[in-house]
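Chain X:
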Amino acid sequence: MASRFGDGIPAEVKQAQFERAEIRNRLRREFQRKVHNPYVQGLVEDPAVLRWSNARANAYQYFRATPKTSFLGFLCIIGPPVALYKLFSYDRKRREHNYATGVQKRPHTLLSG
């Protein structure tokens, strides 16, 4: 026999999910009513946008340095310049070796004379 949706979930969990869904729907209806009201006199503020902007404004007050954030900061700040230095130095050494062994001729530029 096919099982129905929600089998095996305790009644307390179902009740809590139902209550949260009711709260979300009530907030959604209230916000839609405010947005579509033609007689509104002020600004209709979205609470989610307010929470997001507040979190962005106060991010440094709640930041905590952990080994993970320290490693990511090191990787993002120090990693790219070191990687570019290694890449360019390897390429330069390879070209100089090719010039010295005669595999490749040095290109003529206006400044080389």
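Chain Y:
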Amino acid sequence: MAVCTVCGNPTTNKCGKCSNAWYCRTECQRSDWKNHKKVCNYPFEIKESEGKGLGLFATRNLHIGDLVVCEDPILYFEYDRTGETLKTHKFKEAYEMLEREKRKKILALAGATLEAASVDASLALELTSDSSSDNEEWKKAMGAFSRNCIAVNWEGKKVGSGLYITNSRINHSCSPNTECSYLKDKRTSKEVRAIRNIKKGEELLGDYMTDGESFLITSQRRKQLMQTWKFHCECSLCSSDHAQENDALRERVKKLYDVIPIFQAREDIQGAANAALERCNIIEKCDDMKRYLPGAYLELYNILLVAAMQKSYFGFDDALIASLVERREDYREKAYELFKRTKLMTRKDYYNKMMRQLAMLGYLAAGGSNKLMS
């Protein structure tokens, strides 16, 4: 059951305008209006999703890049990635500082049991196996957190873990229509945006898998999701009549992804370019993989820049590669436009990082653009 946004008491009464906040009485709704009015126009409502518990559903048509929600964590802590600081201790410190109302919101989330799952497997294991506390509330809170937390600030020595109440309501799909990102000036804040056009009434879905699991086939994805998140995936992709055909395409894309570095190590630019081009062509025709297209374009652009340098310095004269090299800026521009369209900071940073690396390595001397994304 949902809990009151203000006092944390169980309630079935929602905000009549957006249906995204719950109040047990009129006084609670009035006292929260100053804060709630900032988010009352978010384009979704929270309601039951068959077989999944609560979920987010679009209340109007959304386009690529449209904001779904932006929120700060209700609970956040950092720990040393070397393991010198116990994560359980950090979690307890952060949890004890919360007001009772916020604790109730955490306890109302899915996963408030010892059988928790987490994007941070070591965190989940430590939290749920900690025997220092036999308090039932601790067990439920640790389960809810480890199942719903999001890793923050992976680049430094310290790793952050945050719990985002609304984000936690977004259910999984192997063919998602939304993506989560940090903000430019506040890494602990998370925003969710549409990564494809979404129709009113459609459920807003995210991908729980990591980047390294991008091209797993159906059986592999289901196995990983069951091990990590404790559910059998029946999303539109896994349950599709074309799942077998999709698996074949994913296996081919994964093979091409793996073979490109081998070609590059052998200085076989033609082989690398052909593999990168084939990968782009497959992803272009597959709707559920199109979110990987800008990255694929950018890698092809990288390879073609190297080919351009070889042609300039060593007289490289392969007809196919020469044709692609002449059009290399088209692929960079395609990547730029697709990344920019999503308005996601993670994608902007990825693009700018790649371009800076190319400039540092001197590849842009072959005529490449140094255009960065603002």
